Amino acid sequence: MATASTQPALKAPARLKAPARLKAPAGLKAPAGVAVVVAVALAAGACGTASSPPVGSVDKTGVDATAGNLRLLAVHVPAPAGDRYPKGSDLRVILTIVNVGPVPDALVAVSTPDARRSEIRWDRNCDGKPDVVDRLPIAAADDQVGGQGGVRPFDPYDVLLVGARRAVPAGTDVPLTLRFATAGTVSTSAYVLPKTAHISEPVRACTRSASARR
């Protein structure tokens, strides 16, 4: 007669569970660079379709350039009343010209594709009414006190761009070509300051030079 088996019945294996999700150790943060990249990406996505002009650098004082022995410093246009200069506006270009050479020079022409014409101006009489001149004489390096041979770096002179051919937003550059009698031609630009720019305009000397009195 058959006898019942005394061995215990086999059980099905317990259902396997997925491993618990790994957690970052406490106190571990994402690298700073990752956060920066994410922030930049979000900003780019938010601003990609914006039509407002660029904010511009609030610390930039202008554009610097070199032409022979001449140093052109902080070439800029003062901030517009709004966020841009409307088309047809006149743009005043302020610059400081330093001659480090032994002989005088002269600015004889300025041009830009962004305006109908340009004027070289010099307040040689120090009366607040600059004259339009054909050439702006620039004193040599050893004549920076008396100004016998022309203007010194901080004398009252500038360039006026008449009749802008387009609207010119703050924070952008206006291309310029300047031609000097000795130093030759240099292509540069004038930076249009934003209203929030952290700079002060240079104080212009107003002492009539000997060349102006003659």
Report on the architecture of this protein.
The strands form 2 sheets. Strands 1, 2, 4, 5, 6, 7, 8, 9, 11 and 12 form a 10-stranded mixed β-sheet that branches. Strand 6 (115-122) and strand 7 form a beta hairpin. By secondary structure, the chain is mainly β. The chain is 9% helix and 34% strand. The protein has helices at residues 32-47, 210-213; strands at residues 63-67, 70-77, 84-85, 91-99, 105-111, 115-122, 131-133, 136-138, 157-164, 168-169, 173-180, 184-192. The protein has 2 helices and 12 strands; from the N terminus they run H-E-E-E-E-E-E-E-E-E-E-E-E-H. The radius of gyration is 33 Å and the shape is globular.
Task: Give the overall silhouette.
Answer: globular
By secondary-structure content and strand pairing, the structural class works out as mainly beta
Number of E-state strands = 12
Amino- and carboxy-terminal Cα gap: 145 Å
> Radius of gyration over alpha carbons?
33 Å
Q: Spell out the helices and strands N to C.
A: HEEEEEEEEEEEEH
Low-confidence stretches: 1-8, 18-56, 209-214
| DSSP summary: helix tally | 2
Strand content: 25-35%
Question: Major sheet, described briefly?
Answer: 10 strands, mixed
Portion in helices: under 10%
Short description:
By secondary structure, this protein is mostly beta strands. It has helices at residues 32-47, 210-213, and strands spanning 63-67, 70-77, 84-85, 91-99, 105-111, 115-122, 131-133, 136-138, 157-164, 168-169, 173-180, 184-192. It is built from 2 helices and 12 strands.
What labels describe this entry?
mainly beta, two-stranded antiparallel ribbon, 9% helix, disordered N terminus, 214 residues, disordered C terminus, single chain, globular, 10-stranded mixed beta sheet
